[in-house]
Amino acid sequence: MNRDSRLPILPTVSRAFLEDWLAGLRTYCPPQQLAGFLDQIGLTDTVQPHARVTHDQIVRLYQLVAVETGDEMTGLWSRTIRTGALKHLCASMRGASSLSAALFRFSSFWNLLLDDYAVVLETEEEALRLMLVPRGPQEAQRFGHMLLLKLAHGIASWLTGRELPLRDVSFVFDRPDFAEDYPILFPTPVRFGQPQSSIIFSGLAGSLPVSRSDSEMQDFLLRAPRDWIFTSSREHALPLRVRELLLLSDRLDYHLGDAALALNLTPRTLIRRLDADSTSFQGIKDGLRRDIAIRDLSHGNKSIEAISQDIGFASAANFHRAFKRWTSVTPGAYRRRNAGR
């Protein structure tokens, strides 16, 4: 697959993943306002079963909602998290002596603001565990739980200047239909239906120093939430490791056996482990081709025929059929809706 190295090829997420967020926004934003937000990022409020959403669209939607509503957690909690709260959080954590101390400040900060949950930090020799403990009987807001735990991981990774591996990410709610989107965000397998929603760092990470300048903090906040939602780990779950191998290979004939050899697995074991993650080698390969096409249709003037050839289709007609199967729209319709966004 021929790829333009100037633009990243990021995994998209399913529209179902975004719907989890939109369900909360519909109770928080007037319909006309939410429709305006979606129009600005190239989406409609009509759900298309196989539609995909890019990182840029999620980042832009967050920025629009946070600014227009004045809530930096976009209505996901019972109390408004007012503009400037995340700046104060980063400033507080930046002044800590170590990551362990910074995570203690993270939990203390949210315990001052949240009525719904207590954020509890458990520090042990081998693990640092942040968990959400309900203050009373209530139903977990899935996107809110995900966003708060991802914020902890994203800020911690930024403070230490490295993508921090995780030992575990667990959620109290049942496994959703779009569970395959979660490993894109968290560099570890994700569990569902657990006693609490929690995130576990290695205990060794607790002693890491934190060091960021005021100007670095301003840049981090200006890009928010890109740098704390979409961190760039090489420690992700197996499907994304296979995707990375495909990206690095730059070969149309890269086969499952090649990936198995690179991962020190037998082909049978790789098939079994990918199946356990509800995916397959061909599914990952098609997902990468889809995301390259989405990127190239959204940026630049490369023709649809050239895009189809770059990702290995024998004809533009075959590409049209595959793209519509992947996203529910044709390449031309996708380009008209999203080009330049």
From TrEMBL:
InterPro entries: AraC-type_N (IPR032687), Homeodomain-like_sf (IPR009057), HTH_AraC (IPR018060). Residues 240-337 form the HTH araC/xylS-type domain. Keywords: DNA-binding, Transcription, Transcription regulation. SMART domains: HTH_ARAC (SM00342). This is AraC family transcriptional regulator.
